[in-house]
């Protein structure tokens, strides 16, 4: 069996292995086609050829996509490593000319990151690489390591967990949370004390467990009146209610473009957190990815230092 498989793999087109790799990663024919910038029939046709060559079904239908067979689960990680080495070696021999490139780079960040950082990053890159494209995605934390390792995402930004020695991390800045309310709020403009906070009602936004923990530690959980998933809901909520919200300080300036608000630091409830950029260490070998890393981190650090 091993000898037969070896004879078969000697004749397999590299392009077919790239398609197998994409389907294994995406677990979906359509998403694999988008990843490779080809049509779905091209992906399906390639899988048909591979099924005949490897004498295996390769993938079975499942809710929302496909699942690999035992054979694919066995060989796909090695195929991915080999393709990555080939890709990296070829990239090392190429130059990256920002002024001429029309490459698309993918950055993972939350919606708060899009509000706080993305405009500055886009302006910075557009000034030196006018045809480069950026794509912002929000990859779940549990999938982020795989996305970075497979080059689905080039850089991740935000409040990120430790991800292992194969990933490089750079500290961007520390920030605290600020209490924000609409200008019509009855306590707007007043000095916010611990006692006054007990009279506030709050809206909670996004995936910042620190905020909920901070509120709970001071006995204010019962004052939470609304929970929303996205920060873009905040301006309308604050403008049309007497709710207040705890926001990362970096969101104050973007929020001010959408309305008039009052913000206040509350000494009794101070808590800081660190924002980082993370990439796979292999990307240092690729000129375009290295260029992106240097300029994205610089744009964010410079912007935040200027604003504080």
Automatic annotation (TrEMBL):
Name of the protein described by the UniProt record: LysR family transcriptional regulator
Family indicated by similarity: Belongs to the LysR transcriptional regulatory family.
Domain HTH lysR-type: 12-69
Coiled coil start-end: none
Lineage: Bacteria, Pseudomonadati, Pseudomonadota, Betaproteobacteria, Burkholderiales
Gene3D superfamilies: Periplasmic binding protein-like II, Winged helix-like DNA-binding domain superfamily/Winged helix DNA-binding domain
Xref: InterPro entries: LysR-type_TF (IPR050389), LysR_HTH_N (IPR000847), LysR_subst-bd (IPR005119), WH-like_DNA-bd_sf (IPR036388), WH_DNA-bd_sf (IPR036390)
UniProt xrefs under Pfam families: HTH_1, LysR_substrate
Keyword set, alphabetical order: DNA-binding, Transcription, Transcription regulation
């Amino acid at each position: 069996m091993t000898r037969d498989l070896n004879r078969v793999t000697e004749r397999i087109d590299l392009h077919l292995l790239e398609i197998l790799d994409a389907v294994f990663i995406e677990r979906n024919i359509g998403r694999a086609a988008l990843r490779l910038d080809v049509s779905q029939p091209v992906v399906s046709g390639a899988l048909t050829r591979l099924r005949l060559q490897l004498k295996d079904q390769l993938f079975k239908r499942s809710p929302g996509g496909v699942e690999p067979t035992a054979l694919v689960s066995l060989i796909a990680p090695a195929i991915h490593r080999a393709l990555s080495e080939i890709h990296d070696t070829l990239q090392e021999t190429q130059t990256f000319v920002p002024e001429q490139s029309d490459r698309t780079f993918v950055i993972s960040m939350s919606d708060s990151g899009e509000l706080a950082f993305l405009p500055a990053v886009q302006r910075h890159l557009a000034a030196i690489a006018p045809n480069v494209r950026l794509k912002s995605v929000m990859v779940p934390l549990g999938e982020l390591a795989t996305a970075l390792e497979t080059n689905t995402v080039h850089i991740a930004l935000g409040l990120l967990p430790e991800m292992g020695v194969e990933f490089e991390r750079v500290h961007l800045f520390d920030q605290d949370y600020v209490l924000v309310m609409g200008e019509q709020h009855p306590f707007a403009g007043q000095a916010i004390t611990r006692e006054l906070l007990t009279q506030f009602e709050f809206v909670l936004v996004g995936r910042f467990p620190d905020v909920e923990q901070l509120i709970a530690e001071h006995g204010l959980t019962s004052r939470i009146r609304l929970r929303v998933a996205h920060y873009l809901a905040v301006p309308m909520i604050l403008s049309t209610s007497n709710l207040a919200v705890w926001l990362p300080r970096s969101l104050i300036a973007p929020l001010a473009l959408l309305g008039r608000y009052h913000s206040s630091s509350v000494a009794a409830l101070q808590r800081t957190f660190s924002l980082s950029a993370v990439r796979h260490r292999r990307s240092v070998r690729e000129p375009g990815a290295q260029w992106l890393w240097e300029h994205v981190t610089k744009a964010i650090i410079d912007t935040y230092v200027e604003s504080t």
